[in-house]
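Bit of a strange request maybe. I'm writing a small parser for structure token strings and I need a real example to test against, not something I typed by hand. Could someone generate the tokens for this chain?
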Amino acid sequence: MYATTHDTVLVVTQVAAVLILILIFFAAHQARMKRKHEISKRLLGKMSSEQFLELLQSAEGRRSIERLLGTSRSAGEWVTDAIRRATLLLFVGPAFLLVFALVDFSGQEIFLALGALSIAIGVGYLVAAALTRGRAGQP
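Reply from user aminoacidic:
Good idea to test on real output. This should exercise your parser:
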């Protein structure tokens, strides 16, 4: 089967749409991290050195500072994030496979690969979340 101009435009448009979505998610994540960093910087800047040292002397204070700076995530937070990512990938993967199955054009194999990869990564996240949850002793 030879690709027509229409097929080529369709494939390029769909790949571009996927790339744009990935860039939007990445930009949103970067903006969220930047806002969090700015808030942390402002909060820590308002503390005197005595207050900061007093906070670091207790275990709870150290955990608070770690969370504020984003240097430490609890197992529960990681499991929640992993399940969220897995859910997204396990919906996106079958959508790619559906496009592969229902639309006939040259280059459609990319959607088979993207669908299989999305599902595999999603299952991997679920397995990792289950293992992490089990090690952390969470129900």
